[in-house]
Amino acid sequence: MCPYCSSPFVLDVQHPQTVLAHLGAHILHDPKVNRNAQPCGLCGGPSRLCRFFLKKSHSAGGGMTVNMEASKGCSNLVKKFNYSTAAKSSSQNSPCSNVQLRCPECDSSEPTVWRYNLRYHLQNDHPQIPITRHAHLWGLSDNENTWMLALLTKIKEGKEKRTKKVKPALAISTAHSSKLALRSV
User: Fold this and answer.
1) pTM higher than the cut 0.70
2) CA 81 to CA 72: how far, in whole Å?
3) Domain residue limits, the chain
4) 179 pLDDT exceeds 80?
């Protein structure tokens, strides 16, 4: 469930990109969100509870991916997602670029920080570092900011596109099963 929506909204963890976008819209633009708690991009919980680590990907591009074995705490980290796709804000249909980043000021053994939280992480954990030094890591394009604000507006109006619910298979009782026709008397 989304911790920020006023009416219950189920986060579809089988589609992590949509979860990232939904929670990312709240993190960026919802005044109810405590940004100093650096909320998790997958569940909305405080960052101290959800600890993510990255590793080199084995794909042809050799980029980064979430280390599923080392990452701990987040109940919504149930499925791998394409990190390189998630890191790009490419259109209004794919507006969110909130992924885990290694903080350039932290030790490499420390957990990662969500892009949308990096500014707050730097302000709280590294106040001696000028905030502008790493603005290129946490800064958003005007398009992404506009698209994410539009997404939050849709969420608040209850018009966010929801995935179809899969209906359970029809249950047939044993009294009506075709097995009865094959039994011997």
Assistant:
1) yes
2) 16
3) 16-182
4) no
